[in-house]
Write a structure and sequence with these properties.
Elements lengths: L6 E4 L31 H15 L3 E5 L4 H14 L3 E7 L5 H14 L2 E6 L6 H4 L5 H20 L2 E4 L12 H8 L5 H4 L4 H10 L25 H18 L4 E6 L2 E6 L10 H13 L4 E4 L14 H7 L1
Parallel strand pairs: 2-3, 2-5, 3-4, 7-8
Antiparallel strand pairs: 1-4, 6-7
Helix pairs in contact: 1-2, 2-8, 5-6, 9-10
Length: 317
């Protein structure tokens, strides 16, 4: 089948943890990635059954697959439910860390799902690169449009993503854009929250069940500061360097123009209590273009960029 040049298809190698061919129904015993029967609580089974019922209503599905735990779980459940009628689609652009794309490819192979890499061009959108507080809206709007285009091209595909119930709370312009495009959200519709997702993913043997959330690199740039490929690259290089030196799992290098503000998980701050290490990090980030390098003593917190945004503070009042 012909695919437009913007798409590249990754065909998995079926050599790890073979998944049985029997399709899943709401009453079927769940099986892990390794083939073992899985026992789950009544509440989680009820939610999972609702997810399966939603997926079963589709003939074939495209899954918006970032490689995060939410999209991994919905991809695996779709595979169990629909078998070969599932295709995972990962959007690739300068705002996606290259390591995340590599991880998504590995996960698709492990789950034995067809995988398409979809190029997106949000950096060509002036609305996006100006970095307003609703920046994510413009990114997800383009993604939704390209997923619809791909679904039409392949024929007969519904589109689902891994949005969970908590993702619809608070300031979520990206979620609003996907809602406008009619993207289906089986996890959210079933009432699954993040804890449910991680618990079920662990029981199913998904290797990234405890992976921290990993939003795009643009989320590290202060609102109103222009987003550019060069800026995103220095953020990615900075985070790669820090991870290689510390082994830290939860990390953000926030870009405030000349200042890099490093956030790490609160229980990982102790990994930075070393003067030689701090010097190496400072030297490295300065070589990437930052004039000043700081460590945020409060540690990582989701949405910390909103704290310094007047528009976001006004939204809360």
């Amino acid at each position: 089948m012909y695919l437009a040049p913007m798409f590249t298809r990754e065909m998995p190698k079926y050599d790890e943890h073979p998944i049985g061919n029997k399709m899943l129904t709401a009453d079927t015993t769940l099986r892990s990635l390794g083939g073992q029967a899985v026992t789950i609580s009544a509440d989680l089974r009820a939610k999972t059954s609702r997810v399966v019922a939603e997926l079963s209503s589709c003939n074939r599905v495209l899954v918006a697959f970032s490689g995060g735990i939410d999209s991994t779980l919905i991809t695996y459940l779709a595979k169990l439910t629909l078998g070969e009628k599932v295709t995972a689609v990962t959007a690739n652009s300068p705002s996606l860390p290259s390591l995340e794309l590599t991880e998504a490819k590995k996960l698709a192979t492990l789950m034995q799902v067809k995988h398409i890499i979809l190029r997106t061009d949000e950096l060509n959108d002036p609305n996006y690169i100006s970095n307003p507080t609703n920046r994510c809206y413009f990114c997800k709007k383009e993604l939704g449009e390209k997923l619809i285009q791909l679904a039409d091209q392949l024929g007969g595909y519904a589109i689902v993503d891994g949005t969970n119930a908590e993702d619809l709370q608070g300031h979520r312009p990206g979620a609003a854009a996907l809602t406008e495009k009619g993207i289906r959200r089986p996890l959210a519709k079933a009432g699954m929250n993040k804890q449910d997702v991680r618990e079920l993913a662990k029981l199913l043997g998904l290797p990234n069940f405890d992976k921290p959330s990993m939003p795009c690199l643009s989320s590290r740039v202060a609102y109103g500061e222009t987003i550019s490929p060069e800026r995103l690259l220095r953020i990615e290089r900075s985070e790669n360097l820090i991870r290689s030196l510390t082994g830290v799992k939860e990390l953000r290098v926030r870009d405030h123009g000349a200042v890099a503000r490093i956030e790490v998980g609160r229980n990982e701050r102790k990994l930075f209590f070393d003067e030689v290490l701090l010097d190496r990090i400072s030297e490295g980030l300065r070589s990437f273009g930052f004039d000043h390098v700081t460590v945020d003593l409060a540690g990582y917190r989701s949405g910390s960029m909103n704290e310094s945004s007047p528009a976001m503070r006004d939204r809360k009042q």
